[in-house]
């Protein structure tokens, strides 16, 4: 019997955080926020470039989200 996979709790939390980021920063796309295991640094660099923020500022934004 086929059962569709349900998102893990981590995936659910990330999706909630992505939505909050996209509401706060309208120019962010799903592609900008694409996270792949082991490639977090690449995503953070994309966000730095897209938002014109420093690494410290990006980390602060994520801390404010509770990430």
What keyword list fits this structure?
67 residues; mainly alpha; single chain
What does this structure look like?
By secondary structure, the protein is an all-alpha fold. The chain has a domain at 40-67. Helix content is 58%, strand content 0%. The protein contains 3 helices and no strands. It has helices at 9-24, 40-51, 55-65. It is globular. It starts with 8 loop residues before the first helix and ends with a helix.
Percentage of β-strand residues: under 5%
Tell me roughly what share of residues is in helical segments.
55-70%
Instruction: Report the end-to-end length measured between terminal Cα atoms.
Output: 36 Å
Poorly predicted ranges: none
Radius of gyration: 13 Å
Q: How can the largest sheet be summarized?
A: none
Q: Would you report the number of β strands?
A: 0
What average pLDDT do the residues reach? 89
């Amino acid at each position: 019997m086929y059962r569709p996979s349900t998102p893990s709790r981590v995936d659910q939390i990330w999706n909630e955080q992505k939505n909050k980021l996209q509401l706060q920063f309208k120019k962010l796309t799903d592609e900008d926020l694409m996270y792949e295991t082991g490639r977090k640094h690449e995503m953070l660099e994309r966000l730095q470039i897209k938002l014109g923020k420093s690494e410290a500022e990006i980390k602060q934004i994520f801390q404010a989200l509770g990430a």
